[in-house]
Design brief:
two-stranded antiparallel ribbon
């Protein structure tokens, strides 16, 4: 009896359910034309928290879109008739595109939105408005292959958007200038675009093992387009190391770059003939990291660059052999592998690509010239012996010649100094002391400054490896220069000799005419040589250049020395400018001394081998009369062989700076 009672209960519930279903109101089907009758009005808007939002749907664009096959209410499910209240919720793409939504939710963009970044890309940012969405096959679609870089670039080429996310626009601009970007802009439908490498919806961080740009996944990602190269790489020593999980092994992007990939023929490419050996391969094979970790020999780049091939490459040769020429580009194998291009059995063929006829005897030569490892075989031992023999032969031979010439030169200089009666005093003791102090401090500054600026230079090596020593000596010499400059100001202001010196150094119009006439005379255009006073135009130029240079070098040097304190009162860029001025002013001053001053006191035939006035203050009357004939005061009062006393306030002055 009980089973019958349950059966009647089920029938009763079924009848009630059917009755209720027939009693519920049916949802009215609304045609798209009915919706567009209102929403095609461009002025149609709604208020969204005080902001007017457009409800306009372009009739023509909607009908051309991929969604035109659906009814509006398929997405706007809560709309049950027209007219109606504005929808309170937005349609969800996931309703139809669940798989894509799931992938998107795992990606960087969705996570950024969850973290509060309102500028991160959503569906419509990439695909376009839902009412105007076109299939990817349509050339006008934002996700058409040709348009994807620009679609991604709408955010990734926007500095404000990228800065707000803590990123830069460099990857996009690099891609645009790459071989891929240029090919796409040139109309290619096969060159890699953003989604080929990063994925479409599930764009992941490069550190995520599931990301196609995760280091260990990069070879497979590139293999989608570069299958042959990928197969070669997979069998290479690098590919096998990556397969074993060795993170220090290179993948495609380590050699070719990430976004800025260029053709090997491009001089700016990391795999160009100019860069592959001394930059790209050197990143791993020059240092000691691989040696320490895997026992792989280091200094491969420097030993290559020491060879003929390397030197030719540094000189700009594009045909000289580089790393890839011998080891190949992708199928790089250890030399003990029978398939390796640098295996002994294959070397004749490898070298023969550039050197037709290369045989077993030819391949015995060293490609990597490592002086530190020389002598490992008979040939190496002989080369090492000959090299050392010649080094010592050069030292003794040239050293002996140099010593011989120094002995002769010293004596000939002395004889030249005594050959004529130098009885006219050009420089007083006080002036010579200032000049000597200036000379020594200047050249100490030059050598130590050069060593500080170029720590790997030959000059730096001569001064030792201590940066602190160079720095301290440079500063001491700088202080000496400043002190001698300050003393000269006092000397010029408070001594009659100094005031007379400065007055004679003052430029005048005659110096301008003398400059032109001197050039014309020595070019042979005029017959009369200009006559000079105590100081000619060249000496005056040098004196005032010295005054200006000392002020500039002292002020900028002090700013560099005390940059922390100075930086508290002036912008940092001012200190940077001061350092730049200090460097280039030093070069200018050094070259001026070598080219201008040394010529006048050493290399000028009238003074050669040297004007000795800087050392003992003396000149011959004949030489002085030839150089400064208008300084009749000095010529008339030539005191003889004894140096005169310092000039008194009312006395006539004879001494002068050369």
């Amino acid at each position: 009896m009980k089973p019958n009672r349950y059966l009647w209960l089920l029938w009763t519930l079924l009848i009630l359910g059917v009755a209720q279903a027939h009693a519920a109101p049916k949802k009215k089907t609304i045609k798209n034309d009915e919706c567009l009758a209102c929403h095609s009005d461009a002025s149609m808007t709604k208020d969204d928290n005080g902001k007017q939002v457009s409800l306009h749907v372009d009739d023509g664009k909607f009908k051309a879109s991929i969604h035109s096959m659906f009814n509006c209410t398929d997405c706007h499910t809560e709309i049950n008739g027209a007219p109606h209240d504005p929808a309170s919720t937005k349609p969800q793409c996931a309703t139809c595109h669940g798989d894509e939504q799931t992938k998107y939710d795992h990606g960087l963009h969705a996570k950024a939105i969850t973290a509060g970044d309102g500028k991160a890309a959503r569906c419509q940012d990439c695909h376009g408005s839902v009412h105007e969405l076109l299939p990817a096959s349509d050339p006008a679609s934002k996700v058409n292959r040709h348009n994807i870089p620009q679609t991604c670039g709408s955010c990734h080429d926007n500095k404000a958007t990228m800065q707000s996310a803590g990123l830069t626009t460099t990857p996009f601009s690099s891609y645009e200038d790459s071989v891929h970007g240029k090919a796409v802009n040139g109309g290619s439908q096969t060159a890699a675009v953003c989604t080929d490498c990063h994925g479409e919806h599930d764009i992941l961080n490069a550190r995520d093992p599931a990301s196609p740009i995760f280091k260990f996944n990069v070879p497979n990602t590139c293999a989608k387009c570069h299958g042959n190269e990928s197969k070669q790489y997979a069998t290479s020593i690098h590919g096998k190391a990556i397969a074993r999980g060795v993170s220090s092994a290179p993948v495609c992007t380590d050699c070719h770059g990430i976004h800025s990939i260029k053709k090997p023929s491009d001089p700016n490419s990391t795999v160009s003939s100019a860069n592959i050996s001394n930059v790209t391969c050197a990143n791993c094979h020059e240092g000691v990291k691989l040696s320490n970790e895997f026992g792989i020999q280091g200094r491969r780049s420097s030993t290559y660059l020491a060879s003929y091939h390397g030197m030719a490459s540094k000189m700009g040769s594009t045909v000289a052999a580089n790393c890839a020429s011998c080891h190949t580009a992708h199928n790089i194998l250890p030399s003990d592998d029978p398939k390796s291009s640098v295996n002994h059995a294959n070397l004749a063929h490898t070298c023969g690509q550039c050197h037709p006829g290369a045989n077993d005897n030819f391949i015995k030569g060293k490609v990597h010239l490592d002086a530190q490892a020389a002598g490992s075989d008979v040939g190496g031992k002989v080369v090492n012996f000959v090299s050392k023999t010649y080094v010592w032969l050069i030292i003794f031979t040239i050293g002996g010649m140099l010593l011989h010439n120094i002995i002769l030169f010293r004596r000939k200089l002395e004889d030249s100094r005594k050959s004529s009666a130098r009885i006219l005093f050009r420089m007083s003791k006080l002036q010579r002391a200032q000049h000597m102090t200036l000379l020594l401090s200047f050249f100490v500054l030059v050598f130590t400054g050069f060593a500080l600026k170029f720590p790997n230079s030959f000059v730096a090596m001569l001064l030792g490896n201590s940066e602190k020593f160079r720095s301290v000596v440079h500063r001491v010499a700088g202080v000496v220069l400043i002190l001698v400059g300050a003393y000269h100001v006092i000397y010029a202001a408070f001594t009659a000799e100094g005031r007379k010196l400065v007055m004679d150094f003052l430029p005048e119009w005659k110096d301008v005419t003398d400059t032109g006439d001197t050039v014309l005379y020595y070019l042979g255009f005029i017959d009369k040589k200009p006559l000079y006073k105590r100081f000619n135009y060249a000496e005056k130029m040098e004196y005032w250049a010295l005054v200006w240079g000392t002020i500039v070098m002292a002020s900028t040097g002090l700013m560099a020395w005390f940059k922390v304190g100075v930086g508290t009162v002036v912008p940092r860029w001012i200190i940077d400018v001061a350092l730049t001025i200090h460097f280039y002013e030093a070069i200018l001053a050094t070259l001026a001394i070598l080219v201008w001053h040394f010529y006048m006191v050493i290399y000028d035939p009238a003074a050669y081998p040297m004007n000795w006035a800087w050392l003992d203050g003396r000149m011959s009357v004949e030489h002085y009369q030839h150089e400064h004939p208008l300084d009749t005061e000095a010529l008339a009062n030539a005191p003889g062989s004894e140096e005169p006393e310092p000039v008194k306030e009312e006395a006539e002055h004879v001494g002068a700076h050369d």
